Amino acid sequence: MAKVTAGYRCGECGWATPVWVGRCKECQAWGSVAETSATASGTRATAPRASALRISQVGADEARGLPTGIGELDRVLGEGLVPGAVVLLAGEPGVGKSTLLLEVAAAWARRGRRTLYVSAEESAAQVRRRADRTDAVTDDLFLAAESDLATVLGHIEELSPTLLVLDSVQTVSVDGTDGVPGGVTQVREVTNALVRVAKRRNMAVLIIGHVTKEGAIAGPRTLEHLVDVVLSFEGDRQSGFRMVRASKNRFGPADEVGCFEMTERGIAQVLDPSGLFTSTQGEPASGVAVTVTLEGRRPLLAEVQALVTPSAAPSPRRVTHGIEGSRVAMALAVLQRRARVKTHHRDVYVSTVGGVRLADPGADLAVAIAVASAAADWRPASRFAALGEVGLSGELRRVPGTARRLAEAERLGVKVALVPKGSGASSTRGLRVIAVGTLAEALDTVWLELTDHARAVSDRRAWQEKGAAT
């Protein structure tokens, strides 16, 4: 017989140790090290149940997705939900995870597919009230309020659904397993059981997961490895705009984004979200610049607004909303050093429109132009878009997906676009493309070509003299 040796292993990262410790030395997680056993000798080979097939003999139709009825979610998943796939949807409390998946379950059931929605956090009556509000009541949608895994598996055996929605994995418990619901061991056991039943019954599973205050998915790290697809549901509570973003997808692209809007009637799809992130005013204003950002592979037109005011405090304020403060601080430093736009004695406020978050470096040029426009209090004569990453030496760097960005800008009526030199973009019938090499050159182009020439030259000279004096 093989000799059995005892050991301890971390449930988060798999790090092994011969003695118990309270904190994993690999991932620094507390309370994740548990006792395990392993055999000193290797595992003996057994006869396989079926012979291995040539890859050309394996059918691919079983991995083809079925439409959920929610187009934006299908966009993120690839083709839709693949039978037997396990999908994890994580997000902050109150962002609308339960509402979204309830509508997905209803849309799936309306196509004649039996669906089981298991709520481990709310009662059946509470879920029914939400279904009435979002028009998610249909005959093929079954509802169960259970928090015991064995009972959930019993419902699956009884109903044989093609889709299971579990809300949420951190609130379901397993009898006979150490730990409390939501702990490392319990979450791992629940997920393992759902993955096994999903593959055996060829049933799609949607799991709702909680996140920590740092934004990471709560539970063991192995949770993300066990499931087939990991989606994050993002959005600001003060804004109705929501995004579903894929960080792992075994059946489709892992860089796609779906757009939604929270309304009184539930969550609605936003097929053309670019209009949400730009202001409706017709005339260009000072301190405003438009850029085209890439969310995954999707181009979105976004507007950056800046306000520069005199400061009475020893340390001027730097307030940002929707843009990383470090990127704005870098843009201010490059403006002051390379373009003589002095803001060290002024308060600077930079914000986006519609609650969009710009993490794309391609928005650097728009941020710099918006701040320079606000500092000089001038406005361009026409609307334009600015694309480009700003380097510390003031040079402009190319950004990926320039052709897609410019096509989106032209579709939405933008007439002029500033791009870095070497981007390979050319003007079209409806869009004039201007290539610039540095931030100073971009400001000169905006100042002299996109405004009234006589007034621009006078304002530019006064602005430079004022900048040199300060």
TrEMBL record:
Domain of life of the organism encoding this protein: Bacteria
GO biological process: recombinational repair
Motif RadA KNRFG motif, residue range(s) on this chain: 248-252
Domain remark from Swiss-Prot or TrEMBL: The middle region has homology to RecA with ATPase motifs including the RadA KNRFG motif, while the C-terminus is homologous to Lon protease.
Stated family: Belongs to the RecA family. RadA subfamily.
Function: DNA-dependent ATPase involved in processing of recombination intermediates, plays a role in repairing DNA breaks. Stimulates the branch migration of RecA-mediated strand transfer reactions, allowing the 3' invading strand to extend heteroduplex DNA faster. Binds ssDNA in the presence of ADP but not other nucleotides, has ATPase activity that is stimulated by ssDNA and various branched DNA structures, but inhibited by SSB. Does not have RecA's homology-searching function.
Protein name: DNA repair protein RadA
Species of origin: Propioniciclava tarda
